[in-house]
Amino acid sequence: MNLALFDFDGTITHSDTFSLFLKFSLNKKTQILGGIRLAPYIAGYKLGWVTDKTIRTKLCQVGYVGYDADSLKYMGQEFAKSVLPTCVRQNALERILWHKQQGDQIVVVSASLGVYLESWCQSLDLDVICNQLEIRDGILTGDFINGDCGYLEKVNRIKNKYDLTQYSTIYAYGDTPNDYAMLELAHKKYYRWEEMN
């Protein structure tokens, strides 16, 4: 059996679903106040001084602290049904279906949120490794369980969940330097849909 590892945002999709979901799930007041509180981080991120890991963590800490977990789960399912299909690249979907026809194990490995990504992956019967928001007594804390699932953490979580020696060929698909470590696991690497040597 082969293994196919797919990044999500920018690889399977043509847009950043993380920021889209923030807009979809947070009311205008939270968005405005959060934007003011995080303005230095957002500016720093745009200038390349703040990492994507830091900005994701801060956005969730400000946006989702105190949010009802069941409400966000519902929002995630709605987002997966109504918004994500408009974001998915046709060639990515075709490639996923090709891997399915080969009988390959397919895993979406992403720093996006499980609250919507799990629902989308379930609809296609794909495995998923991603950021999970922490819940205490039915309320979100704004923190991630086990930290942010980006860059080297993608590799750690893949190795923790799968025995890579069991697969004859490993494919990996990514679109940013954040995916380089994951691509290094693969026999066949695709960066922005171009095969790498």
TrEMBL record:
Gene3D superfamilies: HAD superfamily/HAD-like, SG protein - dephosphorylation function. It comes from the Bacteria. One of its GO terms (molecular function) is L-phosphoserine phosphatase activity. InterPro entries: HAD-like_SerB, HAD-like_sf, HAD_hydro_SerB1, HAD_sf. Pfam families: HAD. GO terms for cellular component: cytoplasm. SUPFAM superfamilies: HAD-like. GO terms for biological process: L-serine biosynthetic process. This is HAD-superfamily subfamily IB, PSPase-like protein. It comes from Acinetobacter pittii (strain PHEA-2).
